[in-house]
Amino acid sequence: MKITYYGHSCFLVEAGGKRLLFDPFVSGNPLAGAVKAADIRCDFVLLTHAHSDHIADVETVIQHNPKAVIVGIWEIHSHYSAKGYTTHPMNKGGWWSFDFGRVKMVNAVHSSSFPDGSYAGEPVGFVLDTPGGVLYMAGDTALTLDMQLIPLTCPKLDVAILPIGSNFTMDSHDAAIAAEYIRCDRIIGCHYDTFGYIKIDHEKAKAAFEEKDKELILLNIGETCDIVKG
Ligand code: NI
Ligand code: MN
């Protein structure tokens, strides 16, 4: 499984022969000037919730990838389906087998609405069970005991993407506890540094994970890492 970071919570995951884009938000990210949403090639767009810092570039991405399927909670599916986009609706607790592997939609503790204030269902996370590895993408979330359900209901995680920026989500202290709850040793940080509210000290964040014998990976924007299935 290859994971490329496009800043904030936007990641491209290459697994099972497909390209999966999470939470496209690059044009409004002052740190991601080198990334062009129009240049990203993908087969699926997975959305954790409908805040603008997660969906701002969906239209651009679909314009340039007209066959891409948007995967989101029912209300997000309804919104994009009404615009004529191809979507796959899910809701929390369920699995669906796609051609790249299985996806489970899981709980996240946050809020969700479209930029115009309309209802977008609830925020979610995703677990991907693919031939190239098992990934948990937490989305925007607080630390929650529900994370303990993931190792009980899913195959062993190879890697997880957790928010660490505080203010709107968990900080690195709570994310390190989340890493214990989900029994995953390799964590990629997200949702930090983009705005003044979520600027963090990288060394302190890494130390919070080291204390619990966990690895925190902070990718540079545009950087790709290879996750080997454990
Ligand atoms: Ni949010
Ligand atoms: Mn956010």
Description of the molecule:
The chain has 230 residues and is α/β, with parallel strands linked by helices. The chain has a single domain (2-222), classed as 4-Layer Sandwich (Metallo-beta-lactamase, Chain A). The protein is 19% helix and 28% strand. It has six helices and 14 strands. The protein has helices at residues 52-55, 58-64, 74-81, 149-153, 172-181, 202-210; strands at 2-5, 11-15, 18-22, 44-46, 69-73, 87-90, 95-98, 101-107, 124-130, 133-137, 159-163, 186-190, 215-217, 224-226. A seven-stranded mixed β-sheet has the order 6-5-4-3-2-1-14, covered by helices on one side. A seven-stranded mixed β-sheet has the order 7-8-9-10-11-12-13. Helix 5 packs parallel to helix 6. The longest helix is centred in the C-terminal third of the chain and has 10 residues, at 172-181. The radius of gyration is 16 Å and the shape is globular. Nickel (II) ion binds at residues 49, 51, 110, 140, 168.
What are the defining features of this structure?
230 residues, alpha/beta, Metallo-beta-lactamase, Chain A, 7-stranded mixed sheet, 6 helices, 14 strands, binds nickel (II) ion, binds manganese (II) ion
